[in-house]
């Protein structure tokens, strides 16, 4: 009850100041001061509120941009707790003295966050340098108590939040609480680390630290020390002679792989959690906050990209409903012209002028004008993309995020054997029943660009031949499976066959020139005899599928 009184009194006092500012007509001019005041208030109220502030810093559907920018400071600047308390917690979790496991440990914290802090140490048994992440003392009951109070307060404010913001306050608290409780369990973070290690095990451009589970527990996490340069210091990265273009390219590609390929992505990739290794690789730390996208959501995101390419804004609006931004049954008709305006204004000038921050700014206005609520997992997606784009701009102000992202998506569409992606490729290549020759050429050019950039990256210049055999390094655009699937589709799918034949004979002329142009783009990327052999091997399967399709059509006609 006392904690509830403390929270209500402090927040009520702050709210009354906002009301007073509004009544005397100075609400806009004092925004920087009030934003700073809010940040300090959250720090004073403790870890739960610091974490809430970090979440609000990435929720444009709840809080305005100037407040978001101020609250972003909470992601990097949090007071630490005393070393003797931290060391006692480590020993309690280890079940033995520090000296038995570590030959030395840093005298001060390397980093401090809302839920814990980090030390550098050396393992006595192996001499390896490690990072020790230790949880703040007595934090669990504090978090449970505050979450209960948050939920109680949300139940009182729910009607107002639905009416004014178009979002359910109780649902927002539930999503926040779920993620926060996950972060309290360091054994879960250890499992996240193992999942990331598995996902990137064959990627020579990404470094994920090894976790030492034998020394870790619910309150302590011991992991490999990352000897790199934090992205908080872009000047040091440049002075170290690291290829900035190459580093940013692998960073964007790694982010997109997490989002669109693995469906498991880092939820807090701020500059302090991302390192540039001296050999050009990118390294991630702090895996307490990760988010999972279902296979369905990954496919809908790719659908949204396809619909954007095809300028199909009605389907883009429907994608919002399918992703949970809009309640089922919401009339999307008024949103369609707004989406069209946002996309055309942002992408109409070309890739060179496109950035996610400008799109997000326009999207924020859309959020306030329509009943849109950003689900927690997608607020993390937005934060992830914005944060990583911000890192790119800090290190290279003229960096074009989409000039890396588009080639990656093009390569995925052209080479991924996933049936769902094959279907999306067909949607991209056909518009209004007509085959888009120019679009196919653009996809191939972009995909080749992605392969060329990645294969020439300094991080791929591996000296150890065993490592070269183990790691997956693509030197050419491998279209073998795509050509096989295309040949199968041509023979089996009557609709596709008709459309392709029409594309070759459109306007009463043979489009041999377009076919030749496409061939010239891929001739240096594919081994024709090998592809022919693969297609021939697949021929019996194609014949079987063709016979099955023919028999089904005969039976249905009968």
TrEMBL record:
Transmembrane segments: none annotated. Residues 104-435 form the Protein kinase domain. It comes from the Eukaryota. GO terms for molecular function: ATP binding; protein kinase activity. PROSITE patterns: PROTEIN_KINASE_DOM (PS50011). It holds the Pfam family ABC1. Belongs to the protein kinase superfamily. ADCK protein kinase family. This is Protein kinase domain-containing protein. It comes from Glycine max.
